[in-house]
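Reminder to self: tokens first, then the designed residues, so the page reads top to bottom the way the pipeline ran.
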């Protein structure tokens, strides 16, 4: 049973929280076709597989920022349960916890999406570096071109005629 979720759908569910790209437990549960409660129960049963760099629980402040900014989280507005955020490695670990073919296929799609985002970011960094390098070259050339124009202006200026000095010259 092959399950296909478009990358665009997955990309919309990836957020940057605490400087890390993560997916929220509710979104993951929706993709896997399970209840959030079931997903979190499986994570708690296998908590040793989810160290802090794989998964963390959002604070009230973070949840307060997430809910009003993203309409997909309006259901969380009055929830007393703080959601969990899973990094790319945490999502990969979920496939071993949620042992189903659907979970494995969804995980493959999610991991591919994370890889694609990493490639895009890498390409942007390279482009930004090349742009800065080009800008430095242009700045240097601008000053060189300015010197050339100054020299041309000096050559084009009519020569000043030497005034004849009046008086006796030995």
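Designed residues (170 positions):
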């Amino acid at each position: 049973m092959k399950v296909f979720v478009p990358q665009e759908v997955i990309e919309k569910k990836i957020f940057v929280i605490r400087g890390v790209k993560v997916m929220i437990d509710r979104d993951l549960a929706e993709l896997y076709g399970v209840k959030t409660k079931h997903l979190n129960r499986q994570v708690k049963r296998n908590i040793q597989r989810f160290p802090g760099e794989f998964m963390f629980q959002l604070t009230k402040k973070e949840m307060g920022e997430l809910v009003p900014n993203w309409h997909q989280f309006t259901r969380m507005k009055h929830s007393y349960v703080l959601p969990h955020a899973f990094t790319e490695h945490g999502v990969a670990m979920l496939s071993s916890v949620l042992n189903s073919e659907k979970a494995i296929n969804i995980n493959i799609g999610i991991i591919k999406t994370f890889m694609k985002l990493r490639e895009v970011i890498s390409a942007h960094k390279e482009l930004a570096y090349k742009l800065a390098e080009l800008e430095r070259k242009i700045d240097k050339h601008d000053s060189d071109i300015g010197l050339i124009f100054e020299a041309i202006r000096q050559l084009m200026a009519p020569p000043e005629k030497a005034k004849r000095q009046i008086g006796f010259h030995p």
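The first strand starts at residue 14 and ends at 17.
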